[in-house]
Amino acid sequence: MLSPHWPGQVSARLFISGFDMGILKKILVLILLAYFLVHVAQLFTGFIKVKPLGGVIHTTEVPNLSMASWFSGAFQDSLTNRLDEAFGFRPLYIRLFNQIDFSLYRKIHGYGVVLGKNNYLYENWYVLEYGGYGLVGIEKITETLNKLKVINDYLQKNQTKLLVVLAPGKPYYYPEYLPDESISTGQSTNYYDYMNVLSNSGLPWIDINNWFIKAKDTTTYPLFSKTGTHWSDYGAALVADSILKYTQWQLDRPMNSIRIKELKSKPITKTADTDLNNVANLIFPIKDLNLMYPILEIDSVISPDESPERIVIGDSFFWNLFGLKSNNCYKITNFWYYYSSIFPQWENYQPTINEVDVLQKIRETDQVVIMVTTAGLYKFGYGFIEDVYKKIIKENESSLSVKIESSMSGN
Q1: What is the pLDDT of residue 31?
Q2: Residue 256: CB partners within 8 Å, gap ≥ 6?
Q3: What pTM was estimated for this model as a whole?
Q4: Nearest to 207 by CA among 218, 216, 198
């Protein structure tokens, strides 16, 4: 048997040790340097395409370099934060981190995203409203709707119709998949309070949320996706048809209608159907339901120029309807998004509410629709009601002053 101290073995160990301490160190340094240079190159050139992160991305503004920004440290701090937000392959690392947390610990990342049972995703503000948080109160709701009655009277005098639409909230449609800690305790919610007060208000309104709840077990296809927060295209088509029928009855005039020509099942590609999946930023997105996408056709009985005009005050839920072919049943649809920006754009110029005569616009249209989701009921009308109510009161006071002055002048 060879001795453990055999000279050949000692020489071999010394050679390997020398190789490890010399060449191996250089190889590791080169690997680290290459790793660093690839990330720098990716930062400045983006030579490898990386899918950007979903959701709203915060970007730090770097102030101009000056004596003040340098000595205060503002320039250095902002630049450091900006580099942290933009380093090469950042989206890939964030998705890897999120995937590990989701796969191992069932923890979801993404602002406002709540992970429910069977991997159903919800938005936090919808879950909170369903749980009874942020109650407005009956007194405040009554005050708001009384102002809306004044607006409705004003519209009727100008041959304009008002329609209130309570859009649905996903927790009401899929309560069985909510996390146990998020399930409603049975207390009141803004939705139930508004539903009760609206029922006795005399205002024209449609409760889509309640309709969705009742239709859940009878509709052939899902009205909400598994990983989205908005109604599905199929659900939106049914809603659009209902609003069209109600509008025709309300305006008491012929209108073009829609019908579903065909339903197609296909992989989800629309952001609205899987927007929470997009915000979660996983490497392997959560598998969704088998959704159906309707192909709509318009049954025309009048020309487009004879169709009614409308103004819609609402949130992101209306985007689904705005993009459907049913929108062509109206001559013009002006979407007052959150009572702030106005769509469609006018010759590549997007005006804001502050740039238009609101009273004139609502007098000239055929219908004003206020569409509010359950999570948005705490700010019902998104400022439209309070603003228009004040404008009407001011206009009436001005008219009264003119009448008094005219009367006094006549005497």
Answers
A1: 75
A2: 298, 299, 300, 301, 302, 307, 328, 329
A3: 0.82
A4: 198
